[in-house]
């Protein structure tokens, strides 16, 4: 796996950061992203496709072209926005990680250095929990295994190659996190649970995440229809060895824990953030050979994005490049947290409001990226196919 380091490049006026590919970098580099340029007046995009080919998405998120003899119609979204992802059975190291914690708390009268690594974090009306840095708590080899599993997942699913330092926290009676946002840490937050959920001796402890519809409450308001907690927030139980990822732009927290005061029976989680998404390459093609072709394909994409309604979030895509002819044979959408910036007039070519402007705007962004990357031409490579992951970050 080889990184594509960033160099100074232009940021689309749509607010899409361009982490341009340039040179071969060390594995999992941090790739600083560029500041967005000032906005400009946008002309109306094309909302319909009239070609003989159409883009379709399979169950794995791979986009391909198929013949389409049907009449032209509205552009369809090529990726579903996912602000919460739950992955059960995440790592084979879970039992070992939990075992280290248990061994240091099973005898409360035993005094060891590791028992004094904890910080009781209390902020009035906001945070109450007991936390430590996982890198300082676990044996080095075990921590590296945990870190490697998270980074591999980030590469494969999120298009991210970096993570923040990992925290470990336990919640006993009275511990909680009130709703907050911490998106400045990175585009994806994660919680890996080491909680024996089925054996818990407490109530509460679920991760709560405000639903996107709640943030856009009045647009979907139905008079006479009541709402309850689960209509307003998503509750995620911290089941053992379950990885929960979510968009940290959404207000989130932890429901108050009531019951046990025993750390061995507490809500126990590892948590942190996947940080700046970075372009990287895997396969036979040398990074230097891919850079020129990739940048040539990106230039018209960024020009097109400047003309589209502004969106916010991250869209990571993976290209499969045929070694035989250098053409892009598959495009997969990995992670998609795009939301349309509110307050924009989004109309059709006649200036009339669209029935679903947010879906239309997201679809236009998807197709601008898909069409531009499909047209890319890379050098053939006798060593086989190559995969390039590229994140588009909109701010």
UniProtKB/TrEMBL annotation:
<dbReference type="GO" id="GO:0046872">
    <property type="term" value="F:metal ion binding"/>
</dbReference>
<comment type="similarity">
    <text>Belongs to the iron/ascorbate-dependent oxidoreductase family.</text>
</comment>
<dbReference type="InterPro" id="IPR005123">
    <property type="entry name" value="Oxoglu/Fe-dep_dioxygenase_dom"/>
</dbReference>
<keyword id="KW-0479">Metal-binding</keyword>
<protein>
    <recommendedName>
        <fullName>Fe2OG dioxygenase domain-containing protein</fullName>
    </recommendedName>
</protein>
<dbReference type="GO" id="GO:0016491">
    <property type="term" value="F:oxidoreductase activity"/>
</dbReference>
<keyword id="KW-0408">Iron</keyword>
<feature type="domain" description="Fe2OG dioxygenase">
    <location>
        <begin position="161"/>
        <end position="276"/>
    </location>
</feature>
<keyword id="KW-0560">Oxidoreductase</keyword>
<dbReference type="Pfam" id="PF13640">
    <property type="entry name" value="2OG-FeII_Oxy_3"/>
</dbReference>
<dbReference type="InterPro" id="IPR044862">
    <property type="entry name" value="Pro_4_hyd_alph_FE2OG_OXY"/>
</dbReference>
């Amino acid at each position: 796996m080889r990184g594509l380091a960033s160099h100074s490049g232009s940021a689309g006026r749509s607010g899409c950061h361009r982490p341009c590919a340039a040179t071969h970098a060390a594995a999992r580099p941090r790739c600083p992203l560029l500041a967005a340029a000032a906005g400009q007046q946008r002309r109306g995009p094309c909302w319909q496709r009239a070609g003989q080919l159409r883009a379709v998405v399979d169950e794995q998120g791979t986009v391909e072209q198929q013949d389409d003899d049907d009449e032209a119609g509205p552009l369809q979204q090529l990726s579903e926005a996912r602000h919460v992802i739950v992955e059960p059975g995440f790592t084979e190291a879970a039992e070992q990680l939990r075992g280290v914690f248990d061994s240091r708390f099973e005898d409360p009268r035993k005094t060891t250095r590791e028992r004094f690594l904890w910080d009781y974090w209390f902020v009035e009306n906001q945070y109450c929990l007991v936390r430590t840095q996982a890198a300082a708590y676990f044996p080095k080899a075990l921590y590296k295994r945990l870190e490697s599993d998270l980074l591999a997942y980030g590469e494969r699913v999120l298009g991210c190659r970096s993570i923040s330092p990992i925290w470990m926290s336990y919640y006993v009676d009275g511990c909680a996190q009130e709703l907050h946002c911490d998106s400045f840490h990175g585009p994806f937050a994660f919680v890996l649970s080491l909680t024996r959920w089925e054996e818990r001796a407490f109530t509460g402890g679920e991760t709560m995440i405000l639903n996107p519809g709640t943030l856009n409450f009045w647009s979907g308001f139905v008079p006479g229809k009541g709402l309850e907690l689960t209509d307003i927030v998503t509750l995620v139980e911290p089941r053992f060895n379950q990885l929960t990822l979510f968009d940290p732009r959404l207000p989130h927290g932890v429901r108050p824990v009531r019951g046990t005061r025993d750390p061995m029976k507490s809500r126990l989680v590892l948590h942190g953030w996947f940080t700046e998404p970075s372009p990287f390459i895997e396969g036979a093609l040398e990074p230097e050979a891919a850079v020129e072709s990739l940048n040539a394909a990106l230039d018209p994409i960024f020009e097109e994005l400047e003309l589209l309604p502004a969106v916010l979030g991250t869209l990571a895509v993976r290209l499969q490049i045929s070694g035989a002819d250098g053409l892009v044979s598959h495009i997969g959408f990995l992670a998609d947290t795009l939301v349309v910036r509110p307050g924009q007039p989004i109309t059709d070519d006649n200036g009339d409001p669209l029935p679903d402007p947010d879906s239309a705007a997201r679809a236009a962004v998807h197709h601008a990226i898909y069409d531009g990357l499909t047209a890319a031409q890379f050098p053939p490579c006798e060593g086989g196919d190559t995969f390039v992951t590229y994140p588009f970050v909109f701010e």
